[in-house]
Amino acid sequence: MVLGLNGVVSILGGLATGKSMETLELTEFPNMPFLYWLAVAGAVVKPKWTDSKQWPALKVSMNTPTPIQPKRLKNFKALAAWPDNSRSSVPMMFLMAESFKLVMQVLTLPSFPVSVLGTVVNKRARYSYLRKVDAAESLTYSCKLNPAVRETFSGHAEFDLLLEAVSHDKSDVVWQAVLSMVLMNPKKSKAGKKEGAAASSKPAEEEVSGEAFDTWVLPENTGRAYAALDGDISPMHLYKATAMLMGFPSPVANVHLLAARTEASIAAKKESTAEPAAPFSLELEFKKPTLLPNRLQLTGGAAFAEDAAAVGYKLR
């Protein structure tokens, strides 16, 4: 099997017995339908909430390097609308698409303390490209859970997943990502009116200055196309009927695809090399779901300052 027979047996055994499993090494990327089956099983045997603010330090890693497949890279660039004159480069967000399956593996490990089915949402993400990756390189990926959990303004629980890619050829870390997610507190979620009343005390949202420099047209099948790359077959991304089962009127765009489109738009605007010069970081905060189909406008990047901290972007 894709996950490896030993890994499958270990996970199923841990899920059935409650045995602790904090680390898992894989020889191949996990099978996503199997992981979503684990998520469904977890909804039966795991709680939807925990008051604990110290979770186990879980880690899933590949013990074999993964070569960059030209066909996958080409498909990713087409989907992200990457500039044509960057044929030999590897976009930073391609590494997120390659490693997403490890995110799902961590979230569905028997030792992950809660069910993630319908209870976990994306809050923010920071992706860091430490150096340019050549298409001929092979990379080793890992994902771990930061055990420290934070309480949000609204009483939910925020936690971080840390991803990393290491070059097999040069033995250096080339990419990192921090995915901040929120576990919804069922008691707080039911108190929506009270939260709305308290929201007035939140700090005002920071305005982003600059020009509207790119417009994206995202068709209804965008979620399915991206799922074919990163394996995220969550029902909310696929079809209107499956999205409605998750409480959405239509499919929801994958947040990592929105980040990939943002990187590509910035690369096209830079023009000279058609790619931001590494090292650089891209930080996103997710305010609300992006329904499909949709037309989005990317605004910001005032003067495209050399100081990355001075540049902000906003999708409308």
Provide tags for this entry.
single chain; 10 helices; three-stranded antiparallel beta sheet; 31% helix; nine-stranded mixed beta sheet; 316 residues; alpha+beta; 12 strands
Describe it.
There is one protein chain. This protein has 316 residues and is of the alpha+beta class. It has 10 helices and 12 strands. Strands 1, 2, 3, 4, 5, 6, 7, 8 and 10 form a 9-stranded mixed beta sheet that branches. A 3-stranded antiparallel beta sheet has the order 9-11-12, with helices on one face. Helix 2 runs parallel beside helix 4 (92-107) and helix 3 (70-79) packs antiparallel against helix 7 (222-230). It is globular. Residues 191-205 and 303-310 have low confidence and may be disordered.
pLDDT averaged residue by residue: 83
Gyration radius from CA atoms, angstroms: 20 Å
N/C terminus separation: 43 Å
Which term fits the overall shape?
globular
Instruction: Give a quick account of the main beta sheet: strands, pairing sense, barrel closure.
Output: 9 strands, mixed
Classify the secondary structure makeup into a structural class: alpha+beta
Strand tally is: 12
User: What are the low-pLDDT stretches, counting only 5+ consecutive residues below 50?
Assistant: 191-205, 303-310
